[in-house]
Amino acid sequence: MKRVVLDRVTCEGHGMCEVAAPAYFELDDEGALTVLEPQISTDDESRVQEAVRSCPVGALRLEA
């Protein structure tokens, strides 16, 4: 099972990941991102991969 990792220093709070995979990412009112579920189910893997690719600053990555 893959896992999503957030680089909080790099994240600028654009929220593209939240749009792509709202069950996994949540942006608060101050622009801070929370990874709601770091372990990715196989059913959601393509959705989370899209969220990772959509990050304009590369603050997200997948690990095996």
From TrEMBL:
<comment type="function">
    <text>Ferredoxins are iron-sulfur proteins that transfer electrons in a wide variety of metabolic reactions.</text>
</comment>
<protein>
    <recommendedName>
        <fullName>Ferredoxin</fullName>
    </recommendedName>
</protein>
<keyword id="KW-0249">Electron transport</keyword>
<keyword id="KW-0408">Iron</keyword>
<dbReference type="GO" id="GO:0005506">
    <property type="term" value="F:iron ion binding"/>
</dbReference>
<keyword id="KW-0479">Metal-binding</keyword>
<dbReference type="Pfam" id="PF13459">
    <property type="entry name" value="Fer4_15"/>
</dbReference>
<dbReference type="GO" id="GO:0051538">
    <property type="term" value="F:3 iron, 4 sulfur cluster binding"/>
</dbReference>
<keyword id="KW-0813">Transport</keyword>
<keyword id="KW-0411">Iron-sulfur</keyword>
<keyword id="KW-0003">3Fe-4S</keyword>
<dbReference type="InterPro" id="IPR051269">
    <property type="entry name" value="Fe-S_cluster_ET"/>
</dbReference>
<dbReference type="GO" id="GO:0009055">
    <property type="term" value="F:electron transfer activity"/>
</dbReference>
<dbReference type="InterPro" id="IPR001080">
    <property type="entry name" value="3Fe4S_ferredoxin"/>
</dbReference>
